[in-house]
């Protein structure tokens, strides 16, 4: 029997309030090697999950849906897909208006059976109170995703909008995959310990208060990765400072039970991604802040991205963070008010050289038509050499840029073809009022728009009634 104690604390102030003791039995261990995240059918190609939290389901507005398009040798293949809603057979609950199923996505092999599983946040789900929120686990298998259960929710009376953001990884350093769940206060972040099986008891968990952060927006974004190079992931936590709307970002080590010890302050931003850009064995953190300084003191004209380098103690304080804007020498374009450079960020190895490359969305570019910039990794960090910008007006990219498309609101660098090179998928939730996703291939010489594809909600089974906001969430 595994015994875990739930604890709470302030992220920025040491105010401790004990929560419940959780004596729980862990599920039996599985022998199979854990699958890579988002490889739901175990074929060596990562699949693409697309959240549409505004989708209408069975006449219920904003019930929400998720399309999963499976990878192939040519990229995401819309003819092989799975449509998920709360009305899908085997899913817990039922589709209801304003549930917002698909607001957040994460993936990990929770039951270590060799197939990645999908976590879906539904922050508008009513439970013990309105907008209690829930998270659904959908299980991977040789034939893809099927079967589901709800993720455990320990403190439902102490938070709302549980599942508004998600991250997955081995956070407590016990070798088993865990889930971090963001919510609104007073409990703002929860750790659900793994492994988690398809049935039976769970392995415990914990939750944290945050006296220094605003409880209303709560934890607004989570990302994770092995920043310290010691084998277990740190969690990057985004929120707002109490009494203001200013961004706050910290890095948490959830192995440490005293939460006041597991925080490192980071440059403030609203989204982030984690991977090893300089190939030194420590994952680095790209933090996007797409707001103007008039809206957020940590913002910049047109937005910015700050790269923080990892080291043996987490953040490498011996290296100055790299700040990137569209006015940085070598970065395409120019910083203009409202560009929202940094609206989305992702890290992945596009050309297969072992260095993680950086995709940056600028959803406000050209009257919110949107654009994406790709910078390549090197031994010294991101380099502007070869930096390229893409939009719907780029040769080879389907469609045409239109005001309000918001191309680049979300971006993900993911290997969908199995060639060990990351492909770029870009969401434009405003496209034609419905949203759409584009996918461009990675090659040995970098990203190419040749042969790129695009598709919208109707192609993958989601209703276009109302405003589905297709692409609000993508693979993290």
Automatic annotation (TrEMBL):
Residues 1-31 form the signal peptide. InterPro entries: FG-GAP, Int_alpha_beta-p, Integrin_alpha, Integrin_alpha_N. Keywords: Glycoprotein, Hydrolase, Integrin, Repeat, Signal. Residues 199-224, 381-407 are annotated as: Disordered. Gene3D superfamilies: Integrin alpha, N-terminal (2.130.10.130). GO terms for biological process: integrin-mediated signaling pathway. It comes from Streptomyces koelreuteriae. This is Integrin alpha. Residues 209-218, 381-395 have a biased composition (Polar residues).
């Amino acid at each position: 029997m595994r015994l875990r104690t739930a604890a709470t604390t302030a992220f920025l102030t040491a105010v401790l309030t004990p929560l419940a003791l959780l004596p729980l039995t862990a599920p039996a261990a599985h022998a199979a090697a854990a699958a890579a995240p988002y490889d739901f059918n175990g074929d060596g190609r990562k699949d693409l999950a697309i959240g549409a939290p505004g989708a209408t389901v069975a006449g219920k507005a904003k019930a929400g849906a998720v399309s999963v398009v499976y990878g192939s040798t040519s990229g995401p293949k819309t003819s092989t897909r799975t449509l998920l809603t709360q009305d899908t057979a085997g899913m817990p609950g039922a589709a209801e208006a304003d549930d917002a199923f698909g607001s957040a996505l994460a993936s990990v092999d929770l039951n270590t059976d060799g197939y990645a599983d999908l976590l879906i946040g539904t922050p508008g789900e009513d439970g013990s109170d309105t907008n209690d929120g829930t998270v659904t686990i959908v299980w991977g298998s040789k034939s893809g995703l099927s079967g589901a259960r709800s993720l455990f929710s320990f403190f439902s009376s102490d938070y709302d909008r549980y599942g508004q953001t998600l991250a997955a990884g081995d956070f407590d350093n016990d070798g088993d995959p865990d889930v971090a769940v963001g919510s609104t206060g007073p409990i703002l972040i929860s750790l659900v310990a793994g492994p988690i099986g398809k049935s039976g008891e769970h392995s415990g968990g914990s939750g944290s208060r945050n006296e220094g952060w605003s409880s209303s927006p709560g934890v607004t974004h989570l990302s994770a990765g092995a920043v310290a190079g010691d084998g277990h992931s740190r969690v990057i936590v985004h929120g707002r400072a109490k009494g203001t709307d200013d961004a706050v970002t910290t890095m948490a080590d959830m192995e440490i039970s005293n939460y006041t010890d597991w925080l490192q302050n980071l440059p403030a931003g609203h989204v982030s991604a984690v991977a090893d850009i300089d190939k030194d064995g420590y994952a680095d953190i790209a933090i996007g802040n797409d707001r103007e300084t008039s809206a957020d003191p940590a913002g910049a004209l047109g937005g910015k991205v700050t790269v923080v380098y990892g080291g043996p103690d987490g953040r490498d304080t011996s290296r100055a963070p790299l700040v990137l804007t569209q006015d940085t020498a070598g970065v395409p374009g120019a910083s203009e008010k409202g560009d929202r450079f940094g609206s989305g960020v992702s890290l992945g190895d596009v050309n297969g050289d072992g260095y993680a490359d950086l995709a940056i969305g600028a959803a406000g570019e050209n009257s919110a038509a949107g654009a994406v910039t790709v910078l390549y990794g090197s031994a010294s960090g991101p380099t502007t050499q070869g930096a390229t910008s893409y939009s719907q007006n780029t040769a080879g990219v389907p469609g045409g840029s239109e005001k309000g498309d918001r191309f680049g609101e979300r971006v993900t660098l993911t290997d969908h073809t199995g060639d060990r090179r990351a492909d770029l998928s870009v969401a434009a939730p405003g496209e034609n009022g419905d949203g759409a996703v584009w996918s461009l291939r990675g090659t040995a010489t970098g990203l190419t728009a040749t042969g790129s594809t695009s598709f919208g909600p109707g192609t993958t089974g989601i209703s276009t009634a109302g405003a589905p906001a297709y692409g609000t969430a993508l693979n993290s």
